[in-house]
Amino acid sequence: MPNVARLSTLGDVSGNSLMFRNKIINGNFDIWQRGTSQTSSGYGSDDRWSNEQTGSTKTHTRETFTLGQIDVPNNPKYYSRTVVISSSGSGNYCFKAQKIESVLTFSGSTATLSFWAKADASKNIAIEFVQVFGTGGSPSSSVTGIGVTTCALTTSWKKFIVTVNIPSISGKTLGTAGDDFISFNFWFEAGSSFNSRTNNLGQQSGTFDISQVQFESGSAATPFEQRSISLELSLCQRYYEVLFSTSSNYALDFTYVNAGDYRAMWCFKAEKRARPTAALTSGSSWTAATPTFYYSKSHLGFFNTNGGAINGGSADKAVLYAESEL
Length: 326
Hints:
This protein is mainly β. 5% of the residues lie in helices and 38% in strands. It has a 6-stranded antiparallel sheet with strand order 1-3-4-11-6-9, with no helix packed on it.
């Protein structure tokens, strides 16, 4: 029996051979380690999703489905909402994207994106796929405008299916930094400079809601793959991990070694995509001197030789995050 037929009544495939057909991480919008809203451009709320804008402004939030709703199947708890306030300008835009590790993903083959969406009024959005060959050395130029498709949203939830032929990467050159990827964009608005990448979408204000995003091999959309919350969190933590997420409770102790020497070790819950960067979130314990960091994919070690810059003495604490996003 073909996989599509087999999956017609199968949503939860945890633990069997059909698992991980969805290349999107956090496509169900369950994981929000950074926070539940953002107005800045880039990563800032829903894990693995980059919420981008230039010129125009936006507010992106986590929204909760009404308990027992049946408009979107599989009983999702949350969805993504982007409220755009457009500002006229040829280079202005607002889009939501996910960068999928490795530009080899689906290269030279057919793939299918499926998702649910609605808006505050009848509005179009555009879907675009992009191949990026990384940095370092002399990588090939990015390929944009792949499979550009217009989707007509209404005020009711509707499932959209976009099938795309991803170009071959034969003859291309990868960068040496190991940060190549394939991505796709939900374009909510775009100035005229992006007409070829958005089917002349144009600029618009509005509210755009997205749920249950899946990107898989083949020419047909299968039911949304439901992975456990713990597994999805682990997948997200390959790219971003918070040591402890509130400023009133702490999970990292500095050990006093000798005069002015404070040290600590943080072993990550998930090995990172690359050596991460680390920084303080709110509620940090040092105020003047930043510790010296020693990074690896699996852990973070650091020490501070300026004891006077660390509040509290021999067992000080801090709240940290480690990030290795694309």
